[in-house]
Amino acid sequence: MDAKTEILQRIRTAQKQAGLPDHVEIPREYQTKGTLNAQELHEMLIDRLVDYKADVHEAAESELPQKIAEILQQRGCSDVRYAEGMDASLLEAFNAAGGHATPDSRESDPRELNDVDAVVTESHVSSAQTGTIVLEAGPLCGRRALSLVPDRHLVIVRPDQVVYGVPEMVSRINPDYPATWISGPSATSDIELSRVEGVHGPRDLIVLLVK
């Protein structure tokens, strides 16, 4: 017999000699839902996002257009793309102030997104425990390239999209669609721990939390 078969046979023999069962049921009663209230989730998410070096802002739903315009203007943005299914009125204040925000076109070459100043998308679900924001490819979050190619990404997160942990977050994701998980701005480190930002996504992540 080969080495692998011999090792496994020895393990089974040792189990029998010790009186251990051949089959053990694996417990699956792990926590799948958090117990924190909305305010506690909100505060935890902010703490994690700041720790990840994301730029965090807050605004009421009615204040979103003005807040978006303010954030983009502060960064000198003029040419902006947003997910095609988003409410266009969210960018009206920005356009009225001289900006040029247009919906993304899935037929366009993704490489063209490298030339825009910023992109704006909605979010799908976020984990407060890990500070992870998930974008599910679709009209509100956009195609994957929309949030991966440009160097600046402004994402809107609403209260009902924030859950505690990863199991609950995963339960809200449709496996039939691509999903992008974002934990802070794009960054990586080589073997010498030299941090490099913006390699595989935006180096400037702006999170706008709706109060």
UniProtKB/TrEMBL annotation:
Domain LUD stretches: 43-210
Alphabetized Pfam families for the sequence: LUD_dom
Lineage summary: Bacteria, Bacillati, Actinomycetota, Actinomycetes, Mycobacteriales
Organism the protein comes from: Corynebacterium phoceense
Protein name: Lactate utilization protein C
